[in-house]
From TrEMBL:
<feature type="compositionally biased region" description="Basic and acidic residues">
    <location>
        <begin position="348"/>
        <end position="357"/>
    </location>
</feature>
<dbReference type="Pfam" id="PF06831">
    <property type="entry name" value="H2TH"/>
</dbReference>
<comment type="similarity">
    <text>Belongs to the FPG family.</text>
</comment>
<dbReference type="GO" id="GO:0008270">
    <property type="term" value="F:zinc ion binding"/>
</dbReference>
<keyword id="KW-0511">Multifunctional enzyme</keyword>
<dbReference type="GO" id="GO:0006284">
    <property type="term" value="P:base-excision repair"/>
</dbReference>
<keyword id="KW-0234">DNA repair</keyword>
<dbReference type="GO" id="GO:0008534">
    <property type="term" value="F:oxidized purine nucleobase lesion DNA N-glycosylase activity"/>
</dbReference>
<dbReference type="InterPro" id="IPR035937">
    <property type="entry name" value="FPG_N"/>
</dbReference>
<dbReference type="Pfam" id="PF01149">
    <property type="entry name" value="Fapy_DNA_glyco"/>
</dbReference>
<protein>
    <recommendedName>
        <fullName>Formamidopyrimidine-DNA glycosylase catalytic domain-containing protein</fullName>
    </recommendedName>
</protein>
<keyword id="KW-0456">Lyase</keyword>
<dbReference type="GO" id="GO:0003906">
    <property type="term" value="F:DNA-(apurinic or apyrimidinic site) endonuclease activity"/>
</dbReference>
<keyword id="KW-0378">Hydrolase</keyword>
<dbReference type="InterPro" id="IPR012319">
    <property type="entry name" value="FPG_cat"/>
</dbReference>
<feature type="compositionally biased region" description="Low complexity">
    <location>
        <begin position="372"/>
        <end position="385"/>
    </location>
</feature>
<feature type="domain" description="Formamidopyrimidine-DNA glycosylase catalytic">
    <location>
        <begin position="2"/>
        <end position="142"/>
    </location>
</feature>
């Protein structure tokens, strides 16, 4: 799903194609989840943004916003497969099939939640062409809202104020000392700490795995069991990975050749999940989340969470325990909107709007050949070792 680097990519294209432009029309489509879950509506969004001049765009972790010449401003979250598309340029950061290279994107795109249209105009003395921008979200895990405050106060308003600092935008806050204090006052697996958006903004599954791999840290070791040197190494990896992801706009072709991110996706395939140096990548599942890990590099140096499962030892995913409640988070857990869709469970990974979608960790494989239970007409006494059963009943 879009993480800190992918959101930087969205912000880049918004600045490139929309900043300084006036939104002539906004065609918005009602969605009681994408808008409704955060107290907005397509009608209100269209009314508030139509006719407004775009003055800027920025991000905090997985959130991004577009500011206008007057409030309210648009604050958005892409969820699991959302994206912002432009008719003048293909902005996708991933294409699943080679044959898609060079293929023109469909327009208007499917799964639109709104489309902004800017007419041809002069901006700072430069002629600008007609441009259309569409927010798309096939799985409806994204969120679109309006925030009524001054543009420079957005991060002090909800939902951003409830989220932790951004490791790239807020390097003056995310220091070694800050990270140490955070880790020592909690007792959770280190990966869980990194993924919690209330602690840090923007770190998702692949970024967390890359950080832990670079720091030689086991994902399930409790965060309060690390020494000062390990914390410093972890901090350096966190800042380094997030910064490069943002600077390259999530273009994996520009990532270092030894990053685990480039080799982690082919789980279960023959001759896959091996780094160039021959080290093997395995997958651990904890609490419904999958971690890619290199055991020869990521050693346990302290207490480790007890519920670790080795997915490579048993590829069959287990069904969640009945009656087990999910841990609720602030406002429909949009900060980590990585839950699988309720429909279509057990299907293989797909691609939506040109964005690769991993098979959700919580999915349960479809059970083949399920039928009504047969009731035996006669109980049969189990055979004892060494005995034989006759085909006929002896009298």
């Amino acid at each position: 799903m879009p993480e800190i680097g992918e959101i930087a990519r969205v912000v880049h294209y918004i600045r490139k194609h929309l900043v300084g432009r006036t939104i002539k029309t906004c065609q918005a489509f009602e969605d009681d989840i994408v808008y409704g879950k955060v107290g907005c509506s397509a009608t209100a969004f269209a009314k508030a943004t139509e006719g407004r001049r775009v003055t800027g765009a920025a991000q905090q972790g997985k959130y991004f916003w577009v500011t206008f010449d007057k409030p309210p401003h648009a604050v958005m979250h892409l969820g699991m497969t959302g994206w912002v598309k432009f008719n003048v340029e293909d902005t996708a950061y991933y294409k699943q099939a080679k044959e898609e290279e060079g293929k023109e994107q469909e327009w208007p795109p499917r799964f639109m939640k709104f489309m902004w249209k800017c007419a041809a105009e002069k901006v700072d003395g430069v002629d600008k062409e007609v441009v259309e921008a569409a927010f798309v979200d096939g799985r409806r895990l994204g969120r679109i809202r309006l925030v009524d405050c001054e543009a420079d106060k957005i991060r002090q308003a909800s939902p951003l104020k409830e989220n932790g600092p951004d490791p790239v935008q807020d390097k003056d806050i995310v220091t070694v000392e800050w990270l140490k204090a955070l880790m020592q006052r909690k007792k959770v697996p280190i990966k869980a700490l990194l993924l919690d958006q209330a602690n840090l903004s923007g770190v998702g599954n692949w970024v967390a795995d890359e950080v832990l791999y670079q720091a030689r840290v086991h994902p399930e070791q409790y965060c309060n069991t690390f020494g000062d040197e390990q914390i410093k190494t972890l901090h350096d990896a966190l800042i380094g990975v997030c910064t490069l992801a943002v600077e390259t706009l999530a273009d994996s072709k520009q990532f270092p050749a030894d990053w685990i991110m480039k080799y982690r996706w082919d789980k279960g395939k023959k001759d896959a999940n091996v780094l160039p140096n021959g080290e093997k990548i395995v997958h651990l599942k904890v609490g419904g989340r999958t971690s890619a890990i290199v055991p020869s590099r990521q050693k346990k140096t302290g207490a480790v969470a007890a519920d670790v499962e080795d997915e490579d030892a048993d590829d069959a995913l287990e069904e969640p325990a009945k009656g087990k409640k999910r841990k609720s988070k602030v406002e429909e857990d949009e900060s980590e909107a990585e839950k699988p869709a309720k429909k279509g469970r057990g299907r293989k990974s797909t691609e939506t709007n040109g964005v690769k979608e991993e098979e959700p960790d919580e999915e349960t494989p479809a059970k083949k050949g399920r039928s009504a239970k047969a009731t035996p007409t006669k109980a049969e006494k189990p055979a004892t070792p060494g005995s034989r059963r006759s085909a006929r009943t002896r009298t």
